[in-house]
Specification:
The complex is a heterodimer of chains A (157) and B (154). By secondary structure, chain A is of the alpha+beta class. Chain A is built from 3 helices and 5 strands. Chain B is an alpha+beta fold. Classes of the chains: A alpha+beta (157), B alpha+beta (154). The interface between A and B is medium-sized, with 40 and 30 residues.
């Protein structure tokens, strides 16, 4: 999926959105059909382009705890499990990835993208972070996955 | 398969009492497009929604405050590109003094009020008389003109 239409000669280059959250949500919006959330296969981490290291995806299975199906390199905290598809519960608590994904159930309940931020700790350093999560649905329109992204900046204690 | 409804053990202890809902107008109905805990972010989300390829006919940002009693109150803070001049009150700010009663036009909460609305002035009767005179005058002129034409034709 492409993020924007082709740029022809003479056209001004499209202005890049400054905020990661808005860039990722725009990808999510473009993959929508009517007003429904995009299908799980319609959005891939690579669609985020340069933002891919800050993107994650969560798979939701009925009766099983949620798992990461993808975590960008920049988001992987020290101590993050190397096993494929690790559980959200296995994510180190002192990380932006944990801070952003701990509210995953809110996405299932609301059925719309939720953006949150605040102060926290990432790899032992105080940070101010902001992240977003957006629902993806299966063929029956049931939320079966979550697309997310987060970034942060270091702050003084 | 859909997710189970089991909550994580490390869920946040207290959810924020105020959230900002970006809502879109779709087929005459407002539906929630996204949610944010930050007003500025919600405004940016709403503006980017209106800039997107599938921009709705209108969008608005609602400040949703959850009270301790479990009720919700909504205040519109932005709508379709125009910022409304609504000043938000703190979610749980104590009131310094009881507010003076405000007269409203709502009837539902004042069913047992002793006040009766004043009878509106009757403007219709005089206007009808004027209309009737105008019609009669016009009809008379028309008849006179027709008679004059008839006499000239003879």
């Amino acid at each position: 999926m492409s993020r924007s239409g082709p740029v022809t000669a003479g056209m001004p280059a499209p202005r890049r959105e400054k905020r990661l959250v808005l860039r990722v949500l725009e990808i999510w919006r473009q993959a929508r059909i009517d007003d429904l959330a995009p299908k799980a296969g319609a959005v891939k981490p690579a669609d985020a382009g340069e933002d891919e290291p800050f993107v994650f995806m969560i798979e939701l299975y009925d009766g099983a705890p949620p798992r990461f199906s993808y975590v960008g390199d920049a988001l992987r905290p020290s101590g993050f499990p190397s096993s494929p598809d690790p559980l959200l519960d296995d994510c180190p608590k002192a990380s932006v990835l944990h801070l952003v994904t701990r509210d995953w159930l809110e996405i299932v309940e609301r059925g719309v993208p939720v953006t949150r931020g605040g102060k926290g700790v990432n790899n032992g350093k105080p940070v101010r972070y902001r992240g977003t999560m957006a629902p993806l649905v299966d063929e029956d329109g049931v939320i079966c996955a979550i697309l997310g992204a987060a970034n942060w900046r270091a702050i003084e204690k | 398969m859909p997710a189970s409804s089991s909550k994580e053990s490390d869920a946040p202890l207290s959810a924020p009492s105020r959230t900002y809902e970006v809502q879109r107008l779709t087929q005459g109905r407002w539906t929630v497009d996204s949610v944010s805990d930050d007003k500025e972010m919600a405004l940016e989300l709403a503006k980017s929604l209106m800039r997107s390829r599938r921009a709705p006919s209108a969008a608005r940002v609602m400040s949703v405050i959850a009270t301790e009693s479990g009720k919700f109150s909504e205040i519109s803070v932005w709508r379709s590109g125009q910022i409304e001049t609504v000043r938000e009150a703190p979610a749980a700010a104590p009131k310094a003094a009881p507010e003076a009663p405000v007269k409203t036009t709502e009837v539902g909460d004042f069913k047992h009020s002793d006040e009766h609305p004043a009878t509106p002035p009757k403007k219709g009767k005089m206007r009808n008389v004027v209309y009737a005179l105008q019609a009669a005058f016009g009809l008379g002129i028309s008849l006179a003109a027709a008679e004059a034409v008839y006499l000239l034709m003879r």
